[in-house]
Amino acid sequence: MHRTVVLNVVGLTRALLGEHTPNINQLAARSTTIKPVTPAVTCSAQATYLTGKQPSEHGIVANGWYFREQNEVWLWRQSNKLIQAPKIWDMARARDKSFTCSNTFWWYAMATDADYTLTPRPLYCADGRKLPDCYTYPLELRETLSKKLGKFPLFNFWGPATSIKSSRWIADAAMHIEAEHQPTLQLVYLPHLDYILQKVGPEGDIAQDLAEIDDLVGELLTYFSKRDCRVMLLSEYGIVPVSRPVHPNRILRDAGKLSLKVDLGREYLDFHTSRAFAMSDHQIAHIYVQAHEDIAELKTLFANTEGVAKVLEGAERAEYGLDHERAGELVLLAEPDSWFTYYYWQDDTRAPDFAHQVEIHRKPGFDPCELFLDPKLKFPKLKVARRLAQKKMGMRYVLDVISTDPMQVKGSHGVYDGTDHSTPVLMSTQANLIPEHQIHATDVCDLILQHIFSDEPQTTPEPEHATDA
């Protein structure tokens, strides 16, 4: 077996390569592109890469879905048991029992058979505080990394304060795992570009961010290559420019299909009593239709909605690998310049209490506006400082500083339109194992296995860290 590292540089496309990416450019001479899975979102893409299956087979139909038996919409669950197909470590162990794997921040990292695992996992205290932390297996690895690297910088991982710090911490953890355990396969998640691309779009001012992630990749390429590891670099999806938010739940509300429970003057979706509701995730939305006699009406309604490219019903979902019981009765695909919000309120004063918070587990859909401070606040940083002071004093606090203005979002993903911006890349230090033609996302699993088990010799020189030249 050949020890292999897979660097997942989220959002990277050929359109972003250039003067700011000298280290990544070293691998670009022999590379290919990936036709992404639908939806091209984190959980679905990673599950496909690790199983070689479509969502219709592995069951990860988005970053979250309506858990029908629980009557709840949940995003960002962490149990690996939700993936309904064998994973790459199962396949590799069947070939060689000595195979080991480290899942270094790829998703669904808990309750897993990987040998080592790390994933973001804040501490939720009884007094309401949320403290930055992570989960690891073995459990003692968390304490070791916290002493060596400091606590995982959760608030730099997602939210208005996102920065290179979270990817830096993950990279340092990956090098620690390699130094201490030498896994056969290490899966390393580097999310830095994802945030800036959603905030300003791929054509915005991203030079600094490209340079930061390139420098980090260069360091990892040098480190792992010197330790005789084969290194693959890939991305899950590309991020396209967007300018039009679409609000499926507000459309359903206007059509009389949505049911709302009012608590303390604020509105909350009631899933069971709604005739239909949407779980929105970037450029895809699952419409769960409780009253099946409404399906034809709703399909026509959304087919005539600006910003909606396609409405998939029943067996039509199979063409996109989404015919699974977890999927909505209807699935909306956005036009390239559009994306779907989860918003359902019509008066901001009646928005749910979590709308202005970074609250990824309570919102019934993905919310990229969590990357922005509320522009209506006169002194947002002062309010953040006040809330953090309350936190340090042990007082209850609500960090309600997040924007609900969807026009601020300039980049999104989820639907592949064939453009350079929407097309993820695949590169490798083992260039002879990279096909010249575009591959499908379902082929990635087999290519990783080829890197581990193929004895073909290396055909590219050891990469040098460009900043060391």
Spatial sequence of strands, sheet with the most strands? 9-6-5-10-1-11-22-2-23
Major sheet summary line: 9 strands, mixed
Stretches where pLDDT is under 50 for at least 5 consecutive residues are 459-469
Task: Please state roughly what percent of the residues sit in beta strands, choosing from under 5%, 5-15%, 15-25%, 25-35%, 35-45% or over 45%.
Answer: 15-25%
Number of helices: 12
- What would you call the shape? globular
Tally the beta strands: 23
Radius of gyration: 22 Å
Q: Please state the average pLDDT score.
A: 93
Broad structural category: alpha/beta
- The amount of helix comes to 25-40%
Q: How far is the N terminus from the C terminus?
A: 32 Å
What does this structure look like?
The protein is of the alpha/beta class and 469 residues long. 27% of the residues lie in helices and 20% in strands. Residues 459-469 have low confidence and may be disordered.
Structure summarized in a few sentences:
This protein has about 475 residues and is of the alpha/beta class. It has helices at about 20-30, 40-50, 55-60, 90-95, 140-150, 165-180, 190-200, 205-225, 250-255, 295-305, 380-390, 445-455; strands spanning about 5-10, 30-35, 65, 70-75, 100-105, 115-120, 125, 130, 135, 185-190, 230-235, 240, 245, 260-265, 265-270, 275-280, 285-290, 310-315, 330-335, 340, 410, 425-430, 440.
